Amino acid sequence: MNRWNVFGLEGTDRATKGFFFGTITALAALVCVGLLYPAALETTLNSAFDWVLYRFGWWFMALGVALVAFTFFMAFSRYGRIRIGGEDAEPEFGVFSWIAMVFTVGFGSSIVVWGVGEPISIVTQPPPTSPVPGASIESLALAFMFLHESFPGMAMWYLPFALGFGLMAYTTESDDYRISSMMSVVLDRERYGWLFWLVDLAALIAIVGGLATTLGFTAQQLATILSDVFGAETNLVTYGLFALIGLVFLGDVWLGLHKGIRNAARVTFVLMLVTSGVLLAVGPTLFILNITLDATGIWLNNLPRLALYTAPTSGAQWPQSWTSFWWAWWAAWGLFVGSFVARVSKGRTIRETFVALVAAPTLLTWLQHGIIGGWVLAPGYVGPVSEAFAQNDIPTAVATAITLTPFGTVIGVLLVLIMAGYVLTTLDSAVYMLSAITLGEEEPNARNRAWWGALLTVLGVMTLNLPAFSAMEAFSPVMALPFTLFFVVLMYTTYVTARRYYREEYKEPGERPYFAITRASEESGDDGT
């Protein structure tokens, strides 16, 4: 057998092999450092985290506003009728499967981890000056949670990339499924091939950085729940759980997109709905309902103020540690989620994709965070959970809330199953897109995906050895910062591509066809817009 067959790289060129082994080498090096020198890695990551957010927190906020405006323009202008995959494309998935895949891939276990962690953190360490005078700190904390993980976060970072990748890779039938394909509107690949190669490599590293954050959160949260709630005092149990997830993942790899990823997403989605209902029933129901409504009013009535809150005269970095951190995480995570959403949204219009990726998840995350946030902020819960957070970390706070709740063991089992499901769907979809970007193919082979999955699973296990949960926060901002410039280019290239495609597909009588426009533009030196 050809040695390249083992890695699923048969028939690929040298650049493609470089993508794969370059990223794999960097990932393997990170795993080794994390296993051998966890304290040193923690110090380095935290220092980089502080520097990025202190210097560039404003940039993430400003870029986020521009991306939201661009998203609404694309969805509700005439370009909203453009269908990903072309006008003759048919949806591959039913509405439920489509929404389930988009939702479970787009959020991961952050709904559980940060659904508890952020409100409790804000109550424990409130902003230096309140952006909404008169609001209780509990309602303000939940309002920030809605801002960061409901709206406008998803509209900022997921949809622009999904639309750009969908238009370039599927609608225009370019047969190039790499991230760099979106630069072909402004640059010639033959002339600037080295830059295209660097962009793809940077994209792979940024995606891995976002994945490392979520896998790290999940690994440490699972270990804490198994220890504090179920008395499993050794990491061997968590290692065993990750090994089981890995085996199920390998099975999903061979089942593929339509059976493996789709079914895992559907099961996880149902588990999430069931758990939310059980938690609402056995938790502090009346308080959950009241604080959800109160926080919703604060969130919706003060959306621009909360999104642009920087506390410039306070001398603190509170807003940057929250809003800028979230936008950086979305940016790193959005490269992978956006490309995956584009893949599963073939046959849907831009406007329909807006509903699946922004409107529906906003409603679902609002409900979930209202239930989870109201649960831990309720009288009788907020004190012990805040104390656990102050003395330890977010995973301990989550475990403490579980032990305080009636039928806590049932809640614990459900949350472990949900997080395991999120890990599985995240790995499934992540390796699918990592492999597709690496190989430049719409349907990457199972062998290459298996290699990516095995290495990402090891990365998740490695995070169990990091001495502080906060170290995981550093991956996304550090990896995402250089790639934020790509989002600026992305807005322009997406608009140009949509405009050209619209002229060709929906041209009015007497209007020149697209190819005539581009030929005339090339002769005149214009860009064709």
From TrEMBL:
Pfam families: BCCT (PF02028). PANTHER family: HIGH-AFFINITY CHOLINE TRANSPORT PROTEIN, HIGH-AFFINITY CHOLINE TRANSPORT PROTEIN-RELATED. Keywords: Cell membrane, Membrane, Transmembrane, Transmembrane helix, Transport. GO terms for cellular component: plasma membrane. One of its GO terms (molecular function) is transmembrane transporter activity. It is found in: Cell membrane. This is L-carnitine/gamma-butyrobetaine antiporter. It is a multi-pass membrane protein. The chain crosses the membrane at residues 20-40, 52-75, 95-117, 155-173, 194-217, 237-257, 269-293, 324-342, 354-378, 398-424, 450-472, 478-498. The keyword Transmembrane applies. It comes from Halalkalicoccus paucihalophilus. The lineage of its organism: Archaea, Methanobacteriati, Methanobacteriota, Stenosarchaea group, Halobacteria.
